Amino acid sequence: MHYSELVEVYVELEATTKRLEHTHIISEFLKDVSLDDLGNTILLLEGRVFPRWDEREIGMASKMMLKAINVASGDTKDRINKEWKKTGDLGTVSYNLIREKKQSTLGSHELTVKKILNNLRKLVTIEGIGSVDKKIQLVAELLTSAKPNEAKYIVRTILNDMRIGVGEGSIRDSIVWSFFGDKLKVKYVKEENKIDIEDREKYNEYVDAVQRAYDITNDFAPVAEAAKKKGLKGFDELEMQIGVPLKVMLALKVDNIDEGFERCGKPAEFEFKYDGMRMQIHKNNNDVKIFTRRLENITKQFPEVVDYIKKYIHERKVILDSEAVGYNKKTGKYLPFQNISQRIKRKYDIEKMSEEMPVEVNVFDIINYKGKSIINEPFEERKKIIKKIVEYVPKKIGVAKSIVTADKKEVEKFYKEAINSGNEGLMIKKLDVSYKPGGRVGFMVKLKETKENLDLVVVNAEWGEGKRSKWLSSYTLACIDENNNFLEIGKASTGLKEKKEEGLSFAEMTDLLKPLIKKEEGKEVVIKPKIVIEVAYEEIQKSPTYSSSYALRFPRVICLREDRGPKDISTLKIVESLYNKQKK
Ligand code: AMP
Q1: Which residue's CA is the closest to the ligand 1 atom numbered 12?
Q2: Is 273 marked active-site?
Q3: pLDDT digits (tens, 9 = 90+) for 137-154
Q4: What's the gap in Å between 50 CA and the centre of ligand 1?
């Protein structure tokens, strides 16, 4: 398939923000895509070059892209920079400049979807000396062969910033409409932006089937291929693969024990809520892999955990869900997350780190048992299996501490015990439910102290003054609303250190933020929302200054949350509820 056909779809999608219309556009398009191109097309529609679970990333910063546009268009860097400042989008910049150039020189080559994907994937393999120049050259070649609109979306794909607003829900539903739409008599009525469905119940069954297929593969490409090849039956052949990370189930928040019972029923399971990091652990005989909740592979950084899994998990093939929590080696007391956070990105002295900052693994769920998905088994059954296969070795590994009860008094006692032994609170879990990858469905809820830190994303920053002038030293922070909009909530400049040895430093933050700069205006820079930090504060106030209409009083940066992506941050709802509680 020609890339230009896909680009036409991007253009159509970008012209509307309506979810149903997105679904309609994509589903109509997918109907005609050959099986051979289907997987690749789905990936590119999602703005991806690799599936979600694949840790490879192109990792090309805006500054490098600017160079590639410079080589391809022949325009000066000054001009490109100016255009960039004006539009804030290098995709649009390359569209404008390539268009000008194409008017004066020969036409473009025909690019195919396959070729685009192959070339973009090549970018990842270029390493070592001279790799920067080689990458720039490769992108420049692609841009030179591209039509203006193609160039725009090539650039955006590389920068991981598609701006077409297609969510997972739209991709899922478009697979249903595309491959089962005729059978289900799904009709999109554009004028009213609604769908007519003959049998809503049956339709929902198909949506659920596609969602389940996606849940175990974590990739829409094989799901669409299966649907096209064999219809619903095709999904039966999709298997969960050990080694391929899945999205983790997420928790809702409750304010008290009664609310916990309301959500999870009586009796429910109550577990310690450890203040550590989520670890999804895959074991395939002697091959162990550990992933964060963002599906990053952190196996190398936690050699002791690999060792525990090999020795103390008495089953050959499993996927486990767990929380690894750091503790003080001398006192044995649990330490807050920030202490072990440094281990996530660590590339050297790993053994020393694991000696100095050991973690204890608390297994609380199981997703795959003996090589087969068991997400549809009730939690109670899954827990039984864990208890059977996880050997308890103090300060190394065990099953998350828990009670099953319907008695509020007993829960109160257990809650106190949790807090007193250095935990954040309790998790409450419904006994008879399946595991929902990626879902915040209320099957597990959290109960913790009211004063909680927020996880926020950096959306703006400012260059410092005087001796801080080489650093981005003040950060505008945002939470997220239901429609995935980032809303500003305050500015933080304290909590970071001037010297690297003392903790998260300004220099380190600057290194992280610089490649994400989208726009510069004097001292202020606009940052692509990617870096998540944990922030403490004195109080939440109402404020007209920020787009969230709240402001943090005395915000203080606690640590980087490398285990979280921009979509995992604190929501506006959480901020609102914290604010309301404060008032009480
Ligand atoms: P929060 O990060 O506040 O949304 O709380 C949910 C997180 O708590 C999960 O993602 C886990 O990383 C962590 N957690 C700690 N202990 C448990 C537990 N026993 N069960 C489930 N999650 C836990």
Answers
A1: 278
A2: yes
A3: 999 999 999 999 999 999
A4: 28
